[in-house]
Amino acid sequence: MEVKRYRNLIDGVWQDALSGKTEKIYCPCDGALVSEVPASGVEDVERAVAAAHRAFDEGRWAFDPRLRSRCLLAWAAAMRAHHEELAVRLSLETGKPIREARFELNSSIGYVEYYAAAARTLYGTSTAVEPGLLSVLAREPSGVVAVITPWNYPITLLMRDMAPALAAGCTCVLKPATQTTGCTLEVLELLDGIAEFPKGVVNAVSGRGSVTGAALADHPDVDMISLTGGLETGRTIMQTAARTMKKVSLELGGKSPNIIFADADLDKALPFALKAIFMNAGQLCTVGSRLVLEESLVDTFLPRLKAEVEKLRPGWCLDEATDLGPVISQEQMDKILGYIESGRQCSRLITGGHRLTEGGLDKGFYIAPTILLDPPMDAKVVQEEIFGPVLVVQTFRTREEALAIANGTTYGLASAVWSRDVDKAMWVARRLRAGSAWVNCYNKLLPECETGGYKQSGMDRAGGIEGMLKYTEVKHLCIDFQ
Ligand code: NAD
User: Which atom of ligand 1 is nearest the CA belonging to 452?
Assistant: First the structure.
């Protein structure tokens, strides 16, 4: 497999880190070296922010929605044209099965197309206050945005966070997650290749969060930070942002409940319950990591789910037959196995519970899909985000009990309820303390629709029109013409 070398993008010029330092990226399936990327320092961040600032102040980007719309559409088309090679790089860097990588790219393109159209809908309002006095509220771009992305869905989350910032007229400095820098920069190469896309509007500096990301978040000329990442990173970013009073948008972790009542369409619920937690080896912010089951289903639905889980085929990411990839790193694997061990002390292991090593999997970070039944509410496996293929099943008798279980963590990102009784399903859905409440479906993450966190799952919304308006300021223009 060819090892690809990538460079930062600053003011339209692809370049190495000034220090010349690099980081190596290895495939989590087998430890093969796949990419080498710049390890950027503070001086690279300085130059990238200066370029974004200049592009914002001097260019027409901020005031030309039609230009923005055309560039975003051309970007989506370029991604379609390079779909398979992008999918392969994405798969190799994350270890996710190639079929899931293709799915991720399709959904990423959907975000760009949506925001290409939305760029032309930045409506304001006007009010005739009194004769000769007209008040206009206009939307203006927030300025330079630092976009900081995670590794789990690196392209979709880049598009979900950066496409709306660009649509709103902002300029950006991107700091991709180190593990997925190569695939992210390949997508930016396509944007840079669009003839009318202005230089300096998008810049990218790769490197460690604690160095490159921290320098970006602290930079006085950055107007807003958009982070998708973990809770602790969110806390740090908020503290850093407070120093220069930056706007922040935070999309953080979750511990999402998937509630299934006995009167649900169980044949429909089964594949959703499976995919809700085991796609991308459980490494999705909105995974349904807590299956909240009506008690009578433990003897009927749970065995069916177990049988489906045991059919999942682990394997190399580029093998078309693979259903289950590795987790991202040794560190993450050890952490997940630690959670499983603590879960086994306080619950019943239904399946999985160990590392997978047979058939050459020992070179990667594979964990058997795991189900734990009825741990207590205060158990770590119930309260903390595991970010791996581990499902916790919690049981209830009444709708009130189901709701209390569902709302009983500090997270509030996503949730779902399954029932054929619309009254019951809506009673629960309206009371779920989460940014998304799906009824009789799961993980409907759509470009047109907002997602985001209640409680400690974040601040603000991504997706939909709200996901673009957060990158704007409201200006009051008052015209006195008496
Ligand atoms: P992470 O928080 O470790 O890293 C996210 C990004 O922040 C990376 O680019 C990282 O380099 C950077 N970073 C880390 N420390 C930083 C600092 N001090 N200053 C500035 N930047 C810093 O998260 P991760 O491991 O890449 O991703 C997994 C987490 O992301 C999970 O908690 C998951 O739930 C969450 N996530 C949330 C959503 C959502 O939409 N809510 C989506 C995907 C992932």
Answer: 41
